[in-house]
Amino acid sequence: MIWLVNLAEVVPWKFYIPWEQPKLNWRAKVALNLEDKKSIVAEVSTIAASAHSAVAAEYRGLTVDEMTQLRVKARNEGVYLRVIKNSLVKRAVDGTDFECMQDSLVGPLIMAFSQEDPGAAARLVKDFSKEHDKLIARVIAIGGEVLPVEQIDRLAKLPNREQALSLLMAVMKAPIEKFVRTMNEPHAKLVRTVAAVRDQKQASA
After folding, report:
1. How distant, in Å, are the alpha carbons of 63, 70, 135 from that of 131?
2. Looking at residue 202, what is its pLDDT?
3. What is the mean pLDDT of residues 159-174?
4. Which side of the chain, N or C, has fewer Cβ within a 10 Å radius?
5. Mean pLDDT, range 77-104, rounded to an integer
6. Which residues are paired to 113 by β-bridges?
């Protein structure tokens, strides 16, 4: 005996008749992806335009927890941190001081931009890599120039905002103190002269 089964009662016809299936608007999906890319490029470009320095670091091998720790540390230290395709980074930094990095961006990299002081990104990567050796600085740039990666220590030692303000205050304070000393010097000299005359008279008496 042959049983005849109405497939429509078992599985909706749309699974058997492709032209009756709800069509996936793949063009809209591609357009959305392009819009996402444009948004990312615009965001990174804005950051790069005002950043003081940048470090591109290899991050392969870092765990999800370690990446989370790195992001939290970056946020606390005034560093914009983002994993982004090199092709998008190159478009984002075009026309900025970090355009010089374009030819050096190779492999999966995480970008770190110093937003508050020049040494922030270098300090972040340098300090974090001490306990997480999978994070490796590959490209560093400041002032429109790519520096040898070995220079990351020098860049990391640049003063932060608070230290820079302290240095500035010290520099501004020094001339004022010198001026005050200069103004007080005639009076001090007069006091010393009077004291010397007094001692001389007492010695003669």
Report:
1. 13, 11, 9
2. 65
3. 59
4. N
5. 95
6. 54, 80
